[in-house]
Specification:
The chain is mainly α and 458 residues long. The protein has a single domain, classed as Growth Hormone, Chain: A (Up-down Bundle), CATH 1.20.1250. The chain is 77% helix and 1% strand. The protein has 18 helices and 2 strands. A two-stranded antiparallel ribbon has the order 1-2. Helix 5 packs antiparallel against helix 6 and helix 12 runs antiparallel to helix 13. The longest helix has 52 residues.
Length: 458
């Protein structure tokens, strides 16, 4: 039961549409980099290790600055913070479309991550401020579904343009320049129109609750780490972000497996469509399980989903793709794998919201991403590059796949497949182990949080 009796905020239809569009655009932008992996490899002559550095720099920065955005969202409100991040993204995306120097691109990726890190804490704040706790799973599931829809749209558009010659330039450059313009327009719209109907009411943290941002962060860290559930969830987020950081290499693997770009786009679109379906239906299913068993419902359903994910990864990556085409069962597997990826939104986030005070939701999520997500995104992509190149024999090349020697293409596809399988199975097993640990800890922390809220009210 939610013991926080403060009135929920209400976002009107236009504001609700805008924050969903914000999620869509953020996901669209994030998906561009994995779709363009092969285009970067050819046009910039980058190896998997170089690509990993570029991806890791962006991901680490996105997570590292989350506490900054989280504190701003908790203290000043969501629309001001999100519009600032969008304007920054607009400028950086435009510059990325013009850049050719690898060090300069890595620097821009860091700035890009700075802007991308804002949306997660802001949406956590919006949902927990405006929706009852019992419905968090379904609304976070909806958030994940919109996220997948944005990635799906990005796949269809970007994969057709990335390698095309447009006025003497690769199409991926045009993708980033247009993306920058969209960010700038949305930044203005978010500032003026994405506000709750009671926007004149003071929100966030009262001035006397903390004397500085540093004190606020330290107070929040101290509060979070007192709860064993939170400490376990840090490891869950670590493993989940590790899994997702490796999943982005799926496109490169399918391209090296000999699939034409259209079929690669279809396969990844099926994966994302599965994610969209899982986010919509899975969120409601998780909430239904929670209503049937408020103590263990979310954890049990999450463990079942992770078990299915583990089985799917094992089946999809144990054997190479032959003949340059995917059989029907691959599409079913990709759909089901995508549908299993919603646990971070519909299981982990609601668990965090249950053990964290509502006024600290954005800060708590951002700290989770820093202490849990950052290590996963820093370690696993680099480990992936090491395994692919040093252990499984990946051959660095800038040749077009259609012009590449068969032996080179097969060797690279096999190196990518084996590296993905090892790391994805390891992270899934770790998450499953951690969920079982939550069975013994989560109920006590929820009760302690509820008691604390009741005492605070008194």
């Amino acid at each position: 039961m939610d013991t926080d009796k403060r009135p929920l905020r209400h976002y009107g239809p236009l504001a609700s549409v805008l924050y969903h569009v914000c999620v869509f655009i953020n996901a669209y932008d994030i998906q561009i980099i994995p779709v363009c992996m092969r285009a970067f490899e050819v046009s910039l002559y980058l190896s998997p290790s170089s690509l990993s550095i570029m991806v890791t720099a962006e991901l680490i920065c996105a997570m590292g600055v989350s506490p900054f955005w989280g504190l701003l969202a908790d203290k000043y409100g969501c629309r001001h913070v999100e519009s600032t991040a969008m304007l920054l993204n607009g400028l950086v995306c435009t510059l990325l479309g013009l850049a050719s120097s690898y060090p300069y691109i890595v620097f821009l990726r860091i700035l890009h991550g700075l802007g991308l890190g804002c949306t997660g804490p802001v949406i956590q704040k919006v949902i927990t401020d405006s929706r009852p706790r019992e419905a968090h799973g379904s609304f976070f599931g909806m958030y994940y579904a919109v996220n997948c829809l944005g990635r799906l749209a990005s796949i269809f558009v970007t994969i057709l343009l990335a390698m095309k010659n447009i006025s003497g330039h690769y199409g991926w450059r045009l993708c980033y320049i247009v993306m920058g313009s969209v960010w700038l327009i949305m930044g203005v719209l978010i500032y003026f129109y994405m506000k709750p109907e009671d926007d004149n009411v003071e929100i966030g943290v009262a001035p006397d609750e903390c004397s500085s941002w540093g004190v606020r962060i330290l107070q929040c860290i101290k509060l979070m780490f007192k709860k064993r559930t939170y400490r376990i969830l840090l490891l869950v987020i670590y493993a989940t972000e590790s899994f997702m950081s490796i999943l982005i290499y799926t496109i490169l693997y399918l391209q090296y497996s000999g699939l034409p770009n259209v079929l690669v786009g279809v396969a990844v679109a099926v994966l994302r469509f599965g994610g969209m379906t899982g986010g919509l239906l899975g969120g409601f299913a998780i909430d239904a399980c929670h209503k049937m068993n408020k103590t263990y419902g979310r954890i049990m359903s999450g463990a079942v989903v992770i078990s299915v994910r583990l089985l799917l990864v094992t089946l999809l990556l144990s054997w190479p793709i032959e003949g340059g085409e995917l059989q029907w069962y691959y599409y079913i597997g990709f759909f089901m794998l995508g549908a299993s990826l919603f646990t971070k939104e519909s299981v982990d986030r609601p668990i965090i919201s249950a053990v964290v005070p509502r006024e600290s939701q954005a800060t708590a999520l951002s700290l989770t991403r820093v202490f849990g997500g950052m290590p996963g995104c820093a370690i696993f992509p680099s480990l992936f590059g090491y395994l692919a190149e040093k252990r499984f024999g990946y051959i660095k090349t800038s040749e077009l796949i259609e012009d590449m020697a068969l032996e080179t293409r097969v060797t690279n596809a096999d190196a990518l497949r084996r590296s993905m399988m090892c790391l994805m199975i390891a992270s899934s097993l770790f998450i499953l182990f951690l969920y079982f640990g939550l069975f013994f800890i989560y109920p006590k922390d929820v009760e302690a949080s509820n008691c604390s809220n009741r005492n605070h009210e008194v």
